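pasting for the record
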Amino acid sequence: LKSLEMEKKIDGLLMEPSRNFRVGDIIGTGNEMREIFKTIGTVSQSRTTVLIQGESGTGKELIAKVIHNNTSPDEPFIAVNCSAIVDTLLESELFGHEKGSFTGAVARKLGKFELARFGTVFLDEISEMSVNLQAKLLRVLQEMEFERVGGKDTVKVHARIMAATNKDLRGMVKEGKFRDDLYYRLNIVAINLPPLRSRRQDIAPLIDYLLSKINLDLHKKIVGVSGEVMEKFMNYVWPGNIRELENLLVRACVVAKGQVLGVNDFPDLGKDSAILPVKDDTADIFTPEEPGKFLTLDQVEERYIRKIIKETDKNKGEICETLGISRPTFERKLDKYGISFEQE
């Protein structure tokens, strides 16, 4: 019944293209986010393993929580950061240990897989897990069982496992840094979260939503940001993604005296190199004229060719080398897109 309600909820969102899409605390307006919402609706009807990939700050744990809350809302959601715990302690954290299994083990301790019961274990930064622990996690995924550290009794696993990473796991597999069999076990359903710089149409609705949360927490009545601030935000590359946007807004709201956040409420904006508003020229190639729509491959190719022509001083040999095509192919593409080489 809950799965059916979730499916109807997703379908309802997708039938209204004029509104901001939202599932739980996730907001999106473009086609890419619509597909992510559809995937959330699909995986919420099962307990399959999910791999969530994306840059830091894109909301990977938030996605996992939404899926969990639509599948097992009354069961525990346990998040484990694999990069924050040393290997020996991580094994004990995940699988538990028996009394006397190592120095300091004065009593039996249950691991996260047991404590989660029929809920979810979310393994963040899975790429940082050692090869030794990868093998043990693989057994959990294959057999749904394990032994505690220092123990002999086999413990059954009932929890759902979701994992997240900001690394290229497929590339790590090729480099021998991540087990291929574990990768395929984790990658049954993959959700790839886009960075904020590639979904600029979501910045305004995200600001509205985040300010509503911040107002409640800080007892403020901030109604928005000035046009100048919005322009800077739209031209910024957001290396920290949504987390960075939220942190900037919180800091500004703390010191703000008015109801509209202006440039003076963001004293670091444009001063500190870490948050310098920089135009992302590469993003322009992929940015559609109308928010929420995708460019065709031909449109992207045409924009890229024009960009390379401008940046290579019209040296035909250098242009062809950069594009990785022959001169005849280059000439055909100029004709195809109506590009006058002499006028570029």
